[in-house]
Amino acid sequence: MNSKLFYNNLVFRLAAPPLFGIVIYLLILMFFDSVNMLAENFFSREIMFIFGLTYLFFEINRAIIILLNKLFSIDRSIRLRILIQYVVAAVASVTIVSAVLFLYFRYIEGFTTINTELITFNLIYLFTAVFYHLFHLSMVFLYKRNDRLVEQELQQKKQTQLELNTFRNQVNPEFLFQSLETVISTLHENKKEADDLIDDLARTYRYTLDNRHNELVSMKDELDALKVLVKIYEKRFPDALKIETEINNQAHLKSLVPCTLSILLEKAVMGNIVSKSLPLTFSVITRDDSLLVGYNQNKRLREHNPYNTRMEFLEKAYGFFSEQGMEVNHHSDFVRYKIPLIKIEEE
After folding, report:
1. ∠331-247-324 over CA atoms, to 5°?
2. Could you tell me the pTM of the whole model?
């Protein structure tokens, strides 16, 4: 932001001192009632001195801002920074103007008594310093306000996109179709098991729909939903699915994106051969502040995986809620996902 501000602009640094110098020179002539001398003194050493002093004045005040930006950021305390900036600017302006003015009148003009000139010049340059720093501070606040509005707009855009993806990606018609096939086949064999399967299927979709507007859910809720989903898959793939979980107590206090474990399990089942001879082992393990989800791979000869969009949703969601995001490590015979456990800060 500092590079955008006026005091770092080369054109301003070169053009502003002469323009302000002319105004200051006019004010001084008006104060001493000598405006009629303007034409004959316009290219005199007096106005050249004013130009030089104004250029030095601007550069000193620019240096003050740069130094304070390094030593005392405006983000630490706005009121204190404003007070410090004005006090330092006032002291520096009076010191520089008085010193330069004394040297000029003493060694160039040959005057020794310059009390009136000192008061006049200092008052004019003090007012100039007030407006210079007022303009700087108002530009800073304007930039900060604009940056804040842009950031809010970006966050709102991300949030809207996230909610849209959440609704679109959690609806899985293919899983529903395959589950209904399992229910129908079970219904002919055991009506009680079919009823239980329908109940588990309803609980799975109820969990999905109940959390479609939630950004995060607890680890416990995700594990409970996973257990219900596993029952459905175990009926579809008897003796071919093994679930391993190792969850520490602290992990239950953390949160995940809704349906994370369900999406990963569905991806594992859809992308691999699952049978008694080639069972699928799905593991969920906590390590520090991460959740490690992995499974062995027995890839199908013809890959069919409709879950790429759902995986993209998970990656974007965890990139939104955490700095490290979701990581994936592929190996020849297994794949492992490292998922950040998100802690909700209480306000």
Report:
1. 55
2. 0.54
